[in-house]
Amino acid sequence: MATYPIHNRGWTRAEYDQLIARGSFRPGERLELLGGQLVVREPQGSRHAVAIELALRALQRAFGPAKLTAPSHAFQRGAAGRRPQIRGR
């Protein structure tokens, strides 16, 4: 049996935003764009939320509160788009 290489095409942020705007994803579908690939996000429980909050506080102590944003639940872009959990401004 012959085998053939698989070629992946990466998505740009602009293309991802267009897919969201067109309603290409089911409501509540948890996807994010990582390195050009659409990846299903795992559910976030209370332990995850605590870990993110602790990481945010540690980064704020290291770099100052003006340099960092709040956890991701404050940044939603529709049914599928989410912002990174901790990002620089």
Briefly, what is this?
By secondary structure, this protein is of the alpha+beta class. Helices cover 30% and strands 9% of the residues. The protein has a domain at 13-74.
Tell me what the structure shows:
This protein is α+β, with helices and mostly antiparallel strands. It has a domain at 13-74. Helix content is 30%, strand content 9%. The chain is built from 2 helices and 2 strands; from the N terminus they run αββα. It has helices at 13-21, 46-63, and strands at residues 31-34, 37-40. A two-stranded antiparallel ribbon has the order 1-2. It is elongated, with a radius of gyration of 17 Å.
List keywords for this structure.
two-stranded antiparallel sheet, disordered C terminus, 89 residues, 9% strand, alpha+beta
**Percent of sequence in beta strands:** 5-15%
Order of helices and strands: HEEH
Distance between the termini: 52 Å
- Please list the strands of the largest sheet in the order they lie side by side: 1-2
Biggest sheet descriptor: 2 strands, antiparallel
Radius of gyration: 17 Å
What low-confidence regions span 5 or more consecutive residues with pLDDT below 50? 73-89
Structural class call reads alpha+beta
Share in helix: 25-40%
Number of helices: 2
**If you average the pLDDT, what whole number results?**
76
How does the SSE layout of this entry go?
Blueprint: H1 13-21, E1 31-34, E2 37-40, H2 46-63
Antiparallel strand pairs: 1-2
